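[Q] Does anyone have a clean structure-token version of this?
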Amino acid sequence: MKNIYLLGATGSIGRQTIEVLQSLNDSYRLVSICFGNKLKEALEIINEFKPKLVCTSNLENYNYIKENYPNIDLYYGDEGLVKAATCKYYEDGEDIVINSLVGMIGLTPTIEAIKLKRTILLANKETLVVGGEIITKLVKEYNTKLLPIDSEHSAIFQSMNSTVTMNLACIFKLKGMNLTVSGACASGSHAIGLGTLLIRAGLQECIVCGGAQEVNPFSIGSFDGISAFSTRESDPTKASRPFDRDRDGLVPGGGAATVIIESYESAVKRGAPILGEILSYGFSSNGDHISVPNVDGPARSLEMAVKLAGLNLKDIGYVNAHATSTPVGDRNEAKAIAQVFDDYKVNVSSTKGQTGHEMWMAGASEIIYSMLMMKNGFVAPNLNFENPDEDSAKLNISGERVEKDFDIFLSNSFGFGGTNSTLIVKNL
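[A] Here you go.
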């Protein structure tokens, strides 16, 4: 039997702890709880688990429990936090203090619990920020255990540009190249392209490539700062409208997308299903403005990819455009595609009308979307394409699904700083 002393019972970590205890109630008993203002949630815990001691930082809650639960040892304020972490009601079992308090008030109860040699499960990061050296010395002195249980304790590793790749390499015990490609919204595409070059050079046999994008105010604030978002809030399903005359900005999207690229010999050896062949990787830099795209840079990326693939333009059955629904970006990409493909009206669409702009992952996810189209004989609609402008009218864009068999597609990805990437993939 394990004795649980729960500091911060009604917060996110506290609620998760309660869910665990509900499924393992034969092995654990809840001895004490601390909470703040959430009386209803606290009463649910009290009624179900019947803790011996309760502490609250809210005086009204204190008075209510005192009147209605006279058999509970009730405390108020900072003194009660220490009591909740150090009280002793049972002689048997391991004593485990779960500290999910917010702020420096979690430091003293942690110290006092360590002195009693109790196991500390710590979600109160301020305890280590403020008293890290003291805490580590005490843990060693009293020969007890302190285990972080909140991901924020790993914040330094979460905030690094290489977070995804370094974690995947550790989780899957990968021994080869391990790096993150930072190329703004072309990152996922550049990752696949660079991986292809490494394999063709014989430096790697198999590489996990892709992109990941979290949508939150911190990750997308730069886009808001340059007024890149659509303001069509009254009709959000119509907000992302790539190539349409009435587009007014992008809609953010996110997630993760991964592809496995490898040499043909490696794939055959391990019996992997071979979906396609990356024929070429084109790239360029605009060498111009850091946020305003031009025509020349994307066109050179397209031309390079086509040249390296050794293709006739009419061999390409579909172009997955980068088009994010921004006025300038879509216009200049339309000009670049029209310039390169000349009088050949290849099917063009941007999937961002359906997914939003997935930013750092877009180059990888759109390879997957295009592969699904190629394998299933269709071109996805360019949603909300209702009125072409002068430039998009020159392209073969459909707002409806097009049934079409094709064996080669081209995918564009462009990013801040004028970085451009183009991949051409063949069906196998």
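[Q] Thanks! Anything notable?
[A] The chain has two domains: 2-155, 163-427.
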